[in-house]
Write a structure and sequence with these properties.
3 helices; single chain; two-stranded antiparallel sheet; globular; about 30% helix; binds zinc ion; about 20% strand; alpha+beta
Length: about 90
């Protein structure tokens, strides 16, 4: 399996979001672009299904939030696991 090695300072962490984590204003703005936050659900950027939680792999919580709000990231648990497997990511505690 391919190894995916990145420098220590660029190590990424998995962050989990639900619709409540965003303000009304952020939700409205985000809704205008590709995958959106609808009520209590958020649409997975992979499979397109409505999900309670979306996961983002990023270097910080703030970066993860920005990526999700820009529709650059945000996958359901199953799609995120597929990505981790396909990219051969290793997990450190
Ligand atoms: Zn998905």
């Amino acid at each position: 399996m391919a190894q995916f090695t990145i420098p220590e300072e660029e190590r990424m962490q998995l962050y989990r979001f639900k619709a409540d984590d965003f303000t009304e204003e952020e939700r409205d703005k985000q809704h205008e672009i590709f995958h959106g936050i609808y009520g209590d659900d958020m649409e997975c950027g992979g499979c397109g299904w409505s999900q309670l939680y979306l996961y983002v792999l990023a270097s910080s919580m703030e970066a993860a939030r920005k990526m999700l709000l820009a529709s650059e990231a945000g996958l359901c648990g199953e799609c995120m696991c597929d990505l981790l497997v396909e990219m051969g990511y290793e997990i450190d505690s």
